[in-house]
Amino acid sequence: MxxxxxxxxxxxxxxxxxxxxxxxxxxxxxxxxxxAKQCPDIEVRVVDINATRIAQWNSDTLPIYEPGLHxxxxxxxxxxxxxTCEVDSAIAEADMIFISVNTPTKDFGVGxxxxxxxxxxxxxxxxxxxxxTGHKIVVEKxxxxxxxxxxxxxxxxxxxxxxxxxxxxxxxxxxxxxxVEDLLSPDRVLIGGESEAAIGALVDVYxxxxxxxxxxxxxxxxxxxxxxxxxxxxxxxxxxxxxxxALCEATEADVDEVAMAIGTDSRIGPxxxxxxxxxxGSCFQKDILNLVYLCEYFGLPEVAEYxxxxxxxxxxxxxxxxxxxxxxxxxxxxxxxxxxxxxxFKKDTNDTRESAxxxxxxxxxxxxxxxxxxxxxxxxxxxxxxxxxxxxxxDAELSEASARLIAENVxxxxxxxxxxxxxxxxxxLTEWDEFGKVDFPAIYRSMQKPAFVFDGRNVxxxxxxxxxxxxxxxxxxxx
Length: 479
Ligand SMILES: NC(=O)C1=CN([C@@H]2O[C@H](COP(=O)(O)OP(=O)(O)OC[C@H]3O[C@@H](n4cnc5c(N)ncnc54)[C@H](O)[C@@H]3O)[C@@H](O)[C@H]2O)C=CC1
Ligand SMILES: O=C(O)[C@H]1O[C@H](OP(=O)(O)OP(=O)(O)OC[C@H]2O[C@@H](n3ccc(=O)[nH]c3=O)[C@H](O)[C@@H]2O)[C@H](O)[C@@H](O)[C@@H]1O
Hints:
Elements: E1 18-22, H1 28-38, E2 43-47, H2 51-57, H3 69-76, E3 81-84, H4 87-93, E4 96-99, H5 119-131, E5 135-140, H6 148-156, E6 164-169, H7 179-184, E7 189-192, H8 196-206, E8 215-218, H9 220-251, H10 255-263, H11 284-297, H12 301-328, E9 337-341, H13 356-366, E10 370-374, H14 380-392, H15 399-409, E11 410-412, H16 416-420, E12 425-428, H17 440-446, E13 452-455, H18 465-468, E14 471-473
Parallel strand pairs: 1-2, 1-4, 2-3, 4-5, 5-6, 7-8, 9-10, 9-12, 10-11, 12-13, 13-14
1,4-dihydronicotinamide adenine dinucleotide binds at residues 22-28, 47-50, 53, 87, 100-103, 120, 123-124, 142-143, 172, 174, 176, 282-283.
């Protein structure tokens, strides 16, 4: 990270008329659909190098599943919302360009396994520098390590056309499954920058529907760092309650009761205290590891160690869940059929990135279990790809063996009933609402006996499963 002079001073900025968003993913798509819906006076173009994804955004089957998303896309698409692969012209014509590309954990070279891979961000900055003329506002929407704007500004300042730029940080706080709700009524929108005029221009966009008191402005670096910090704090709460769940199982305390008891303290608050098989999703682990890397980079090993523990506790929780299944099933799951209920990392999304289900299934396969997997939104291809990737773990030589392991031991089915037929156990890994509504006596009859249920989300806890004959175990309590 080098120090460069501030971005070119901004000329007078007129109200934003055209927006371009680079990256039509989970963030770019829904965020821009909301801006287009709320600001009919602004033309929004979402661009991506992935032509298949753009085609999906232009079809009736959107590339991501989010409650309410279809409706808001249909309202604006073709009017002031466009999805296209024409990256250069969309950038060239825009007044404001959002960068919303992926920032995965680096899996090679310096910082591998921890640092963010900023290759895609840098490519966007270079592309913007190449094709821009006049003055543009560039908005970092992706989650980035603190001080990335410095590099973005340095690249932009090399624009050969003499274009000038303001750089803003505007991290996104939406959660998957509630993206539309979160975008419609955010707790806050955070905008960091150096130029009052540029900040004002973005504030005016959001002010079309977000109350002014929820539009927070800070300096660039506070904004960049707040995003990583918010995710680290949220994940830390999950790991904290999960650590207590292990203690509850050992002591006959009940983790949901403990969560309720501490959550009513207004200083602690009730949210993000739901004990589970472990947090997943594309961001928590990636962002914490990035924070850990930054702390090490800035010579703060104690701070790095503190945050790394959140990820270690999450790995422990997933392992602990599998160990409990194996132990309870008389110390072997070899050749036993286990019904997996849910594969997405949380309900109401088809996203499986870093889902706890991937790791639980991997470990069960290594124990030679036979898995029958059902998820209402995740495709069979996606499930098999995730399992192939995790079993292979980057080693090409393991491709054939892991493909065989999956072919022989994994089936993906289209109902919980099919998954459970002749199964020895059920493992609930995603909290889909429909799981609470199935005909449990019929499921019980179709299973091997004793019929076990391992509820990694405690969603079946209030049902009389023991009365139906099941042996039921959840997270963080004993019956
Ligand atoms: N997924 C989520 O719920 C949230 C994600 N974020 C952050 O937002 C950022 C984006 O995340 P997602 O939308 O989930 O990623 P994603 O992987 O779903 O989408 C990123 C898109 O960017 C495209 N892309 C990459 N390089 C490009 C280039 N040079 N030109 C044009 N398109 C390019 C990819 O093809 C891909 O379609 C990440 O930094 C993430 O940490 C922040 C809040 C929530
Ligand atoms: O940067 C991001 O990507 C986003 O990450 C999270 O959103 P998301 O990962 O979509 O979903 P969450 O609702 O935060 O859940 C994350 C994981 O934690 C788990 N979780 C959550 C809450 C809880 O109490 N217990 C629990 O196990 C969920 O099941 C899920 O696996 C944050 O909540 C968003 O604010 C942020 O914008």
